[in-house]
From TrEMBL, chain A:
Protein name: Ferredoxin
SUPFAM superfamilies given in the database record: 4Fe-4S ferredoxins
Origin: domain of life: Bacteria
UniProt xrefs under Pfam families: Fer4_15
Keywords: Electron transport, Iron, Iron-sulfur, Metal-binding, Transport
Organism lineage: Bacteria, Pseudomonadati, Pseudomonadota, Alphaproteobacteria, Hyphomicrobiales
Biological source species: Methylobacterium haplocladii
UniProt GO MF annotations: iron-sulfur cluster binding; metal ion binding
InterPro entries attached to this UniProt entry: Fe-S_cluster_ET (IPR051269)
Automatic annotation (TrEMBL), chain B:
GO MF assignments: oxidoreductase activity, acting on NAD(P)H
Keyword Flavoprotein: yes
InterPro entries linked: FAD-oxidoreductase/Apoptosis, FAD/NAD-bd_sf, FAD/NAD-binding_dom, FAD/NAD-linked_Rdtase_dimer_sf, Reductase_C
Keyword terms of this UniProt record: FAD, Flavoprotein, Oxidoreductase
Protein name per the record: Pyridine nucleotide-disulfide oxidoreductase
Pfam families attached to this UniProt entry: Pyr_redox_2 (PF07992), Reductase_C (PF14759)
Coiled coil: none
Organism of derivation: Methylobacterium haplocladii
Signal peptide, first to last residue: none
Record domain FAD/NAD(P)-binding: where: 8-315
Cofactor: FAD
Keyword Flavoprotein applies: yes
Amino acid sequence: MTEPRKEPGAGPLRVVVDLNRCQGYAQCCYAAPEHFELRGHEVLFYDPTPPAGKQAEIARAVQACPVRAISFDMGSVS
Amino acid sequence: MSPDEPGIVVVGASLAGLRGAEALRRGGYAGPLTLVGDEPHAPYDRPPLSKHVLAGELRPDATALPHLADLDATWRLGQPAVGLDRSARVLRLADGVELRYEKLLIATGAQARPWPVTDGSGPLPSGIHTLRSRDDAAALRIALAAGPKRVLIVGGGLIGCEAASCCRDLGLAVTLADPNPTPLARILGSLIGSVIVSCMNTAGVDFRPGTHVEAFEADASGRVCRARLKDGAAIETDCVIVALGATRDTSWLAEAGLNADAGGLTCDSACRALDSEGRPAPGLYAAGDVARCPSPFYGGRLVAFEHWGNAVAQAGHAARNMLANDDDQRAYRHLPSFWSSQFGINIKGVGLADGADAVAVVQGSRASRRFLAVYGREGRAIAAISFDQARWLPAYAERIEAGAAFPPILGATDQSIKDFGAPDFPEPRSR
Ligand SMILES: Cc1cc2nc3c(=O)[nH]c(=O)nc-3n(C[C@H](O)[C@H](O)[C@H](O)COP(=O)(O)OP(=O)(O)OC[C@H]3O[C@@H](n4cnc5c(N)ncnc54)[C@H](O)[C@@H]3O)c2cc1C
Ligand code: SF4
């Protein structure tokens, strides 16, 4: 039995984007250019596991998204 | 709360299971909560597996899902549920543990449809893959990184097309074989599927329409070396991806007296699992790919959607009903939606297009590979698909939800529809 423990800051962050909701506005890409990238006309590529120290940038991207498509948490060790 | 109160158990610890558990907590449920999952991994996201993971841009273990509420749950991972005793309200796990439950959320999803092994055909050669889990993606990624001479993809559904796109990004020779005239023929019809054919031609995918793969041959080491086709021809290949869609493994429910088979677990509109008599089974709910529910937008037709957005929305809805009284069980009204990315194009769809009798390109053009097309049936708009035109989609989704006439006219836009025709769906599958 494994238990995904929550230890804020212990592992990378975990990010997911609801790509149904995403409209390709690219605001996240300006807010956190290392972790969100728009390819072609409107394919969003994002980093689902940014390093623990990048919380402020990811939070900025979350705030910048006009359709609130981005979610993240602080990760866990397992 | 007494410590031995059975509480709520969620079976299937993936997208629907996790989001359902979170919705229970957000809805105020404070009792014991257990998540049971047969995979050893914490819940992770599958869509990137057939895209960035195969392409080598993300590690297979990089897609763990964030937890969006404090779960305070007991996790039993790496443990399949193997049986359900509804009268005693007990769930049996493979290791013999019996979990009592007050309410159960079934979110066991789907599995990749395996290559059918028939009697006398011998063991399957090595080098034949399917793609559903993180472990599948890791194995396939290793196989692709080894530089196979030619990848053969059997089946031109969403996952087969995405895999073909990745193979070309990696510079690998790839053949995609499908019995239909175009890829995505079952979900979009061949009129729209023809755009994918042109993308494949440009990208250098060897697309073989009307092609039935019958069997695989192995070399002396037991590795796949050739696929035999129904017409007697053959395709030389040393790496095969079987992408024939999904089935539901509901065999663990066989003795439970429910309405479950490889097509899903039948539910009522409130996401309650139905027993073999068609009555809601007390305390039993289902959500995600496994749940086959009546869809209000399609005449109550029973459908098990296989899309990310449905898993999230339905899990939230089922959780809401699990916490509500019997006389407050609300119907799930969800217009399905999905996305895919392949050949650099963002494809998004809403509604169920199969069953349409007409399709009209209402924005852009197929030739430019940037367009929005609407599907109609008996004069009503029932679905829409966009290729790199996502911004238009919500407006059409609203029309579809409202049951608007086909083709729907959107206020300010100048629509002169030149591209209009039969969607050209294949005959329904016989099996
Ligand atoms: C490669 C791939 C790419 C995809 N891409 C997209 C996309 O681009 N867009 C989109 O909209 N959708 C996409 N999807 C679909 C989307 O991922 C699914 O709809 C979603 O995962 C469904 O979630 P679920 O929780 O219902 O089922 P699943 O994710 O299948 O999870 C079910 C879980 O239950 C477990 N389980 C099964 N049986 C038992 C048992 N007896 N006991 C315990 N646990 C059990 C399974 O192992 C699994 O972990 C994709 C799917 C795949 C496989
Ligand atoms: S800001 Fe939001 S809508 Fe825009 S690309 Fe990023 S996730 Fe998508």
